[in-house]
Structure formats: structure tokens, C-alpha cells
Amino acid sequence: MKNTKSYLILALDVKTLPEAIELVEQTKDYVGYYKVGKEILNSVGLPTVLRALKERDVAVFVDVKEADIPNTVMNAVVAAARHGADIINIHAFGGMEMMRKTVQAAKAENPNVKIIAVSVLTSLGDSDMRDIGCMYSAETEVWKLAKLAKDAGLDGLVCSAKELQAVRQIMGEDAFIITPGIRPAWDAKKNDQKRVMTPRDAIVNGTDTMVVGRSITKNEEHNPTEAAKLIYEEIAAALDEPKVETPTLNDIFVERLLEAGVVKTGDFTLKNGTKSPIYINVRDLPRHHGALSMAIYMMTTKIAKKNPEFDRVGGVPMGALSIANMLSFACGKSILTLREQAKDHGLVGTKTVEGFEPEEKVLVIEDVATSGGSIREAVEKYRFLGLQVENACVVVDRQQGAEAMLKELGVELLSLITLEEIVEALYKRDDIDETMKQSIRDYMMTA
Questions:
Q1: 51, 87 in Cβ contact below 8 A?
Q2: Which one, 171, 173, 301, 402, has the greatest CB density within 10 A?
Q3: What is the pTM of this model?
Q4: Considering 65, 144, 333, 381, which one is annotated as catalytic?
Q5: Residues 372-417: tens digit of each pLDDT
Q6: Residue 244 lies in a domain
Q7: pLDDT tens digits, one per residue of 85-129
Q8: Catalytic site includes residue 65
Q9: What CATH number is associated with residue 307?
């Protein structure tokens, strides 16, 4: 069983070695790791700092967030491992090759050192992500970087506690997840972090260890020893509590769909006049950036896993066009716009699609599949023009015949989430009871 201290990392955000040593002596009964960053390392030097801390028999997390060309990062991290660092982080934005080469070289130097990827800084929110040119929300960008870090062979990830459960799903139970942005409830002082959580909540949500800084080192009510002890005791109590059931990525996605108003339950009259206990309007998805970016990430992941061959992305007008455009950007494949009617201006003619080469393969994108009629119509138009269509992808498959019908056309349907999966997620959340769950299933069978 893990030592309670191992769940707590103290950030030694000081400029001098005497200050750092004093904090270690004051808190080492309650702290498992000490994080040293650029402030003290640039002031004193990495070898000197590591030597002094290791002499006091404590574990050290070197928080330098290395991001450079692969050889530069690899050599810097190997040097830190050689001087006794127990944990070293590198920035996932550095890319696959940088991470892969670095972890291999560091493990060759010291098999026990943990190489952790930094994802999205806890000081950044969605608007900040847009400012720096990221198409995804902060939450979804963390998912993307977690997958990249796992594929590169890293030991784990630094992420806010808000993304902790999703990262666990993506990286696996053995991943070592560090959560910064931890602030105890008794420390209400504001700081520059936006995605924060209490120590107790971080524990029950499954963190491996957490970073605390100013709540211990600069608290106005408690000295460092008292503050560290309070957090240690909160962690110890939380370890005796049941862990929160880790939601699947589908569960989290359904939560975002509910927030976006895409999924609703009740009594609805559909366009064809039939009654339905559930209403799904994926056309509202682009109105909610978090839900849309999550959908695009999950779609690209499923497409990559299936690995269909395609040259272009084609959206079914009109509801799927915005989704297809974003997916085109995320996949690096150009968009192919399908018009509902041929142009009656400019280059007047019968063409409903422009700017393509014969025999190009098109991945057809739709928002919702019910019977599959709109997808079939798009497939037939593309094929009439000499394009090839072997695969289609939808956000939601209502499981009412589309998959079987498209299979007869030689088109494989890939769905991001099915109606059955949505129902199960709603039931798990207690948003619907057993009666409503059965009502929706009955509707699926008879519609």
C-alpha cells in the first residue's frame, strides 16, 4: 500500500537553497516529493539543488517542462536523471519523437525515474487555448496530449484534477497522474490557476499524487508545518473513502451533450409525427465549443483506430457541414462540399460537388443516422460523379436501420456514440429511471 506522504508534492517555489532546505525540514514528515522548478534551478543550479535535497533523503520532482528539439530535451533530462531526480516532466507539445527519445534515454540512465508529460497548464482556460491557436477546448486538448504521451511510452501526465478521470481512461490504470491546481477548502485565497480542486476530491477521483505550493508555503493562517499536516490529514481521511466510479469517455461526452442541449428526455413529437421519449438534435452541437471539440477528438480517435482509407471529408448538408469542416482540419484532409442543389449562378451546371479528382475516396460525415437515408443520398451523389465511398461516420447512431442499409451499399458506418450508449450513460447519471430507460428501448425497437 502506498505511503500517505507519496500523495503530496510540495512546490519549492523559492529562489535560494537555504529557503528550500528550511521548507523541507519543516514539512518532510508529511510530504512525499519536493518539486523544484526554474526559479530555484536557475538561481542555484540543478546539480547543487538535487545534491542538497537527496542528502536529506527526500524524493525530488524536477519541474522544468522541457520542450525543444528531441536531442536537446533528451540530453537535459538524462542529466537530471543522472543527478538523482525521481520525476522529470517534459512538455507533450514537443511531439511524439521528442517524448519517445527522451523516455528511452532517461530509462537507460535510471530505470526507476518517472518521465511525465505536461499537458495544458492549469492557468489556461478555453479562451486561452483559442488565443494560442488550439482548435480544442482545454479539456479536450488534455485528452489529445494524454493519448500522445501514452503512445510515446511516458509514465504518466500532469493534468488538472478536472481532467483526471478522462486521462485515467485514456492512459490506463498504471499511468502516474500528477494533479496541480490543488487548493484546500480552508485556503480561499485566489491565485492564477483556473482549474482547481481540493485534496480530498483529487484523492477520491483517483490521483496518484498532487502538487500544493502556496497553500503550504505562503499561508496567512498556518505555518508550513501546520498547513502540510492539515493537507496530509485530509489526504489520509480521503484514502479511506470509496473512490468515485471512473466514468467512461462516453459518459463524459454525454454530459457535454446534455450541457449543449443536444440530448433531451421527455415527450417529443418528431417531424414525421411519431412520439419519442428522447430527442437528439446534433445540429446544436456547434453552439457548445466544449462538446464540439470533444466530438471531433473522439471522432478522429475512432477513425485512426479503424484506419479507413480516404482522401477527402464530405459532410452531408446541412447539419453535418460544420462538423465535417472541423474534422477535415483535425485529420489534415481537405473538405469536399456537397451541394443540396446544383449551382444556378457562376459556373452554372449540374455539378453538386466541385474541386475533386476522379476516383478520390470520400469519408462521408453526418450528424445523426436514423434510417440512413441522407447518408445514402450523399453516397449516391458522390459515386455518380466518379468518387469512391466506402465509409461513413456519424456523431450519433440512433440504431434504427442505418448501419444495415449502408452495409448493403458497401459502406461501413462508424458511429461516435449510439443511442443505446447514451441511454446507459443517462441511467448511470440518474437522469432517467428504469421506466424511462425501457420506454426509450421500446421506442428504438418500434420506430
A1: no
A2: 402
A3: 0.85
A4: 65
A5: 899 999 999 889 888 999 999 999 998 888 999 999 999 999 999 9
A6: no
A7: 999 999 999 999 999 999 999 999 999 999 999 998 878 888 888
A8: yes
A9: 3.40.50.2020
